[in-house]
Write a structure and sequence with these properties.
The chain is built from eight helices and 26 strands. The protein is an alpha/beta fold and about 325 residues long. Strand 2 and strand 3 form a beta hairpin. It is elongated, with a radius of gyration of 21 Å.
């Protein structure tokens, strides 16, 4: 089976970080978002991947080739970003001969039993109950339990079950035909070609869709959600460091993730802090935050903050959202 992973978006909601780093490579709980996805897929035996790249796609390709050299990876460039449906359509020739495919959004972390999902002999959509369905693609059920409607960001939702960006498709030919139809007829919703509209056409044509409710779903597209995800994942045993290293005259309050070759002096770190490798923290207090690789913080008090890679901050007490390659001196 092939996994189709769209990673072409620009990540506007996470700027300034996504000016210099594609969203799937942003650090959370000690590793990039895309690594959580790939590690789960590899664990269930998927070894063929199609990455739909665009914005800073070279960085994503370089990361995958360096850190996942054993997977079979293809890369398709989405030259123009006209939505998720357009992205999948752009890659159609890479999976048109497959019996089934798994589509997984490349900026979302799932807590789901993938083995259970892959056992299904019919198509399955991952879903999760949400408080405000107006911001998501929403599913509606018939009396027989199958889907009768999927709607992209409805103004008046008739269901609170949202699609989470996880799609097991058995009817691959029908999917491509539906995508071709919306592209050829310029059938756009919210100025984009939506995968949701292609799925709805498949339903109208008789395709049966099951759903599988995920346990947790982290759509890491905004600062607040990214930091919340960081905190949740750090608390899980399989993401925690086996042994927190000792640092001179410093207090480390778990859970934390501290990268390799870090220097921490006269500081209090934690809880819920991720620090990238080769960073230096001096005389600082940091909690509920993500600090990128090769960063230097001196005499800083930070909470609920994201600091990008290769950044320098001195003398500050504040909540920040700092992008890569930034230098700030408040001393």
């Amino acid at each position: 089976m092939k996994a189709i992973i769209p990673v072409a978006g620009v990540g506007k909601s996470l700027r300034p970080h996504t000016f210099t780093q594609p969203k799937p490579l942003i650090l959370v709980a000690g590793k990039p978002i895309i690594s959580f996805i790939l590690d789960e897929l590899i664990q269930v035996g998927i070894d063929e991947y199609v990455f739909i790249i665009g914005y800073m796609g070279d960085k994503i390709q370089s990361f995958i080739e360096t850190h996942y050299p054993n997977i079979k990876a293809e890369y398709v460039v989405q030259e123009q970003r006209f939505g998720l449906g357009h992205a999948i359509w752009t890659a159609r020739n890479t999976f048109k001969k497959e019996d089934q495919i798994l589509i997984v959004l490349g900026d979302t972390i799932f807590d789901v039993d993938l083995k259970e999902m892959l056992k299904h002999h019919q198509s399955v959509l991952g879903v999760k109950k949400v408080n405000d369905p107006r911001h998501f693609g929403v599913v509606e059920f018939g009396d027989d339990g199958y889907l009768v409607k999927v709607v992209e960001k409805p103004s008046i939702p008739k269901s609170n079950m949202a699609m989470v960006g996880l799609y097991l498709i058995h009817e691959v030919v029908e999917l491509i035909e539906a995508l071709n139809y919306i592209i050829e007829n310029q059938s756009m919703t919210r100025d984009e070609y939506q995968l949701t509209d292609a799925l709805m056409r498949m339903i109208d044509k008789g395709t049966k869709f099951h759903t599988l409710e995920v346990r947790n779903w982290f759509d890491c597209g905004k600062k607040d959600i990214l930091l919340e995800t960081n905190a949740i994942l750090l608390k899980r045993k399989h993401y925690q460091q086996n042994e927190t290293p000792h640092f001179e005259h410093s207090i480390i309050i778990p859970p934390v993730s501290i990268g390799e070759n870090c220097i921490i002096e006269n500081s209090i770190i934690g809880p819920n802090v991720t620090i990238g490798s080769n960073s230096k923290i001096e005389s600082s207090i940091i909690r509920e935050s993500i600090i990128g690789h090769f960063s230097h913080l001196d005499e800083v008090t930070l909470y609920f903050s994201i600091v990008g890679h290769d950044s320098s901050i001195k003398g500050l007490r504040q909540s920040l959202n700092i992008g890569d390659h930034t230098e700030i001196d408040f001393s």
